[in-house]
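Quick review question:
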């Protein structure tokens, strides 16, 4: 019998009543991950399967492990109870996806505890855009934080879209003390007093606060035309050009370290204003990541089914119903946006085919328009099947970074955007999600994502990335307008507006 059989790891669970995840997050002091799924009341039926489960996972359980990749080096911090699986605390000068592959191979297999719930504890966190260097992208590292931060979590609270909830915890006969601690945690999980309604709470920034562009609007429009010149020369078909906006940090330094999390307050306002299927709040070391992403990057089922759902084509919603319907119809008929979407569908078909069974890659939906609280978006769905035993890290690496954030062909488009942007993107344009101990994985594209870097003496930086796909038919002014549209759901919630 191998070690995994001898250790007999498994998930213990307890049914909960009346769970309010926001309150649970508020009650946690340490690092945690919250995968926060929701939809507006009028959301399309096609979006419902993406928003079926929400998860809160504290990162400080007795079996906890941290994998951080920074400055091209991996640091693995392993709690004593998990060392029989993951080894000792160590640093390794190896590529992130190679290390991740080894960690996933060492992860004890755990069956999915609930029907339809792909998450069976496991690894949670983010993979930053700069890890694209490991699959042919520009050779950069993130600025001010790690390129990846993933945690092996052994505790979680999960809530289904009908309100049913459970607490989950890892136990193992080989680690009685750690298992006893997790059983005690299961018994202790209660729902704190519901969080205050944040809708009527004033935004965290003074009215009229500016989110300052990293470059001017004119400079961005010039870069759009530079992308078009590259396309004219045959160097790309589509380039995803991005920029970033910096938010003020004043007024937060005194509040940090006082048992509060002002970035969580901001996130609660964002989620109240803009329900999305792939919302996430990450509190990982110095990072606070507040993401309101509507876009799935990849889902991998435990049995090897793979799904990608890229978004290309966005329009701002209007208050007048007739005008709003006209905007939606215009997006559905847009030749330019359909061309953008189809290019990324073809790119993802190629990405998936690198690890999929031949003949299994297929397109289920092409250029379907979905409506959310603040935008209409054009979505496609590509499916595939990978052979049994295929590394989940290899599947993700073959498709990383998300094609909707690169352009096509991927390597050439990334080189063009990197030259024009000339800075790392960090968490933005990467992926957020989990690699389950069941063999499943689910990752969103890190868009509509506010990234805050904190330190003991206060907030160092707060940035929101935004961008769009440039094709030959792009108009520079329209592309800049689209960037502003994509910032509104986040900036409006915190009381800021674009200034560039």
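Suggested answer, residue by residue:
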């Amino acid at each position: 019998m191998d070690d995994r059989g001898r250790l007999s790891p498994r998930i213990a669970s307890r049914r909960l009543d009346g769970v309010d995840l926001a309150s649970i997050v508020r009650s946690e002091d340490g690092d945690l991950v919250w995968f926060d799924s929701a939809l507006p009341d009028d959301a399309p039926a096609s979006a419902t399967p993406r928003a079926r489960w929400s998860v809160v996972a504290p990162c400080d359980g007795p079996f906890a492990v941290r994998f951080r990749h920074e400055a091209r080096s991996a640091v693995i911090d392993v709690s004593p109870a998990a060392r029989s699986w993951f080894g000792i605390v160590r640093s390794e000068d190896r590529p992130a996806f190679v290390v991740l592959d080894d960690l996933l191979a060492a992860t004890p297999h755990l069956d999915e505890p609930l029907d339809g719930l792909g998450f069976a504890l496991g690894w949670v966190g983010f993979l930053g855009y700069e890890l694209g260097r490991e699959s042919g992208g520009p050779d950069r590292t993130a600025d001010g934080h790690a390129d990846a931060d993933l945690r092996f979590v052994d505790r979680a609270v999960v809530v289904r879209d009908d309100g049913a909830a459970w607490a989950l915890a890892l136990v193992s006969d080989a680690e009685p003390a750690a298992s006893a601690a997790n059983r005690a945690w299961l018994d202790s999980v209660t729902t704190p007093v519901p969080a205050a309604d944040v809708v009527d709470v004033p935004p965290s920034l003074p009215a009229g606060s500016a989110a300052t562009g990293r470059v001017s609007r004119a400079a961005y429009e010039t870069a759009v035309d530079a992308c078009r010149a590259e396309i004219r020369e045959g160097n790309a078909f589509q380039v995803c050009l991005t920029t970033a906006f910096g938010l003020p940090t004043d007024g937060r330094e005194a509040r940090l370290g006082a048992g509060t999390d002002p970035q969580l307050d901001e996130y609660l306002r964002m989620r109240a204003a803009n329900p999305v299927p792939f919302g996430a709040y990450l509190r990982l070391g110095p990072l606070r990541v507040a993401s309101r992403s509507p876009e799935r990057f990849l889902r991998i089922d435990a049995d090897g089914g793979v799904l990608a759902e890229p978004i290309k084509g966005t329009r701002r919603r209007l208050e007048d119903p007739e005008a709003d319907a006209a905007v939606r119809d215009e997006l559905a008929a847009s030749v330019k946006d359909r061309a953008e979407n189809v290019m990324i569908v073809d790119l993802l078909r190629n990405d998936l085919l690198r690890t999929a069974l031949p003949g299994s890659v297929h397109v289920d939906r092409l250029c379907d328009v979905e409506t959310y609280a603040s935008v209409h978006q054009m979505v496609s769905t590509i499916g595939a099947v990978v052979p049994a035993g295929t590394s989940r890290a290899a599947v993700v690496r073959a498709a990383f970074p998300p094609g909707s954030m690169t352009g096509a062909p991927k390597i050439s488009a990334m080189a063009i955007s990197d030259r024009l942007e000339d800075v790392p993107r960090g968490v933005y344009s990467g992926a957020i999600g989990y690699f389950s101990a069941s063999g499943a994985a689910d990752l969103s594209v890190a868009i509509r994502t506010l990234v805050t870097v904190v330190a003991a003496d206060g907030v160092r930086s707060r940035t929101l990335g935004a961008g769009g796909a440039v094709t030959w038919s792009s108009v520079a002014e329209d592309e800049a307008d689209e960037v502003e549209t994509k910032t509104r759901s986040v900036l409006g919630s915190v009381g800021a507006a674009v200034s560039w």
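Why it works: Residues 1-6, 252-259 have pLDDT under 50 and may be disordered. The first strand starts at residue 10 and ends at 16.
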